[in-house]
Specification:
Elements: H1 2-6, H2 8-41, H3 49-74, H4 78-99, H5 105-126
C-alpha cells in the first residue's frame, strides 16, 4: 500500500484501473437498462410489468450515478466516486429484488455482474484512498 501511495506513477496506474472497471460497470448498466426496456416493449405481461417499471427506474438511477462517478474518479474525489458507485449497486439490488421469482436468470445474472464490476471499482479505489 505504501508503495502505491508514495509513487504518483503507481497511483495514476491504479486510478486508470479503476477507470477501466468503472467504464465496464457503466457499459453493463447501460446494456441492462436496454434489456429491461426490451422486456417492457415485448408486450404487456402483468406478471412482470410492475417489476420492469421498478427496474427501468432503478437502472436509470444507477446509470446517472455511474456517469457522475466518472468525473469524481478523474478528479480523485475518491470518496464521492465510491459513494456514487455504491449507490449504483443499491439500485441494481432494488431491481433484482423486484424481479425475484418472476424473470429468467438472465436479469439476475446481469444484476450480479454489475454488482461485481462495481465492487471491483470500489476495491481498486480503496488501494489509493
Amino acid at each position: 500500500m505504501a508503495a502505491l501511495k508514495s509513487n504518483p506513477t503507481n497511483a495514476n496506474a491504479v486510478v486508470g484501473l479503476a477507470a477501466i472497471a468503472l467504464k465496464k460497470s457503466l457499459d453493463n448498466a447501460s446494456d441492462t437498462y436496454n434489456f429491461v426496456m426490451s422486456l417492457s416493449k415485448a408486450g404487456p405481461d402483468p406478471s412482470i410489468e410492475p417489476s420492469s417499471d421498478v427496474c427501468a427506474e432503478s437502472y436509470s438511477d444507477a446509470l446517472f450515478k455511474l456517469v457522475d462517478a466518472v468525473p469524481a474518479l478523474s478528479s480523485r474525489a475518491l470518496s464521492d466516486a465510491n459513494t456514487l458507485v455504491s449507490a449504483a449497486i443499491t439500485y441494481a439490488d432494488k431491481c433484482k429484488q423486484s424481479f425475484e421469482g418472476k424473470a429468467s436468470n438472465s436479469l439476475g445474472n446481469r444484476n450480479d455482474y454489475l454488482n461485481q464490476l462495481c465492487t471491483v471499482t470500489l476495491d481498486i479505489t480503496k488501494l489509493i484512498s
